[in-house]
Amino acid sequence: MFLRIFTILLLISLLSCGGDVCFIRDLEVTVGECSCEDSYALTVNFIAEGSDSEYFELFSRNNMLVGHYKLADLPITIDKFEMSGLSDDYLKVRLNEDDECTKEIEFFPPDCKEETGDCLITALEVEVGECITEGIYSLDLFLEYENATNDFFDLFIRNGELIDYYKLSDLPLSLTKFETSGLEYDYLKICINDNLDCCKEIEFMPAICEETDCEISDLKVELGDCTSEKTYELTLNFEYDNATHSNFEVFIRNNERIANYPLSTLPLELDDFALSGKEYDFIKICMTDNPDCCKEVEFMPPSCEENECEIYDLVIEVKECTSDSTYNIVLDFEYENAGNEFFDVYIRQGILIDYFKLSDLPIEIIDFPISGEDYDYLKVCINDVPDCCKEDEFMPPEC
Questions:
Q1: Domains of the chain in sequence order
Q2: pLDDT, tens digit, for every residue of 159-175?
């Protein structure tokens, strides 16, 4: 009887673990370096027996799930294992989501609250670059530091004037437009952002930037299509040296300013440049806020007057009768500047017969009505252009 009961219990145990006894042995943890004040790296390894599962779970204290992992990936490393705050940290391994197939371990965590030391800027160097314009030059900044209390640093010039703040990760820093102080030596002071106790300053010889004259040259205009009777497309371009501004202004006659544009838009396209009404149109270019740096040009504008619509050589060919009051005609004519794709056909008293495509000329009009007068009448007009018409009288057939 005892043997039978033992056998039954053994079978139940085997079935609950996939046919073999589920077992975890040689559980080890290797404590790594701190990743911040409250977490550290941790490597976990163990041997699993009697399990057909490919995965396992890790739990910390209070049954908090750390994660799911593959057995094939053992040993696994957790980059940021959170400290429990107790003297011993804790891990539990579970297979098959079976609380009977687990293994626990306690271990000492590292001390991640060691003082990092005072913030310190250990080295500050500048490399003076080229002149941009008078009193302005480029500057490269090199900085070394320890235990920074912020991800940013502030840049000051004399009298504690803040230039801007920058990311430490952007170092070395290139300043493309550094303004000279006008003194024999220029000055910079660097402080870790929000930490005026962590600073370093330097004096250095500025670049010698002699004044050079702004100049605009090779001003060209290229004419495009008319956009109306009084406007047309125009593209302008020019070369420049020692620009005193990033923008330029465009003027027409009588020093009338059109607009202000960035130099980066060159060549500049103007879609509706106005005709001056004179034989030559005129443009003047000046650097913004610099009336001494200009260039002007005169040029022949296009002719944008619209040509009048005209119908001519109207021909009406009388054909056979189709009834005692109708007959066929063939209609053809020439035209210029139609401005429309269609034309209308009228008889006396402005009665519209129909409209047709210009591209279908010559056309045959079936069952043209006999007026009953000695001469029949027909008028053609370009569609929607009542001033562009042609009319004719002609002898109808005897039907």
A1: 2-107 (2.60.40.10), 120-204 (2.60.40), 215-299 (2.60.40.10), 310-394 (2.60.40)
A2: 999 999 999 999 999 99
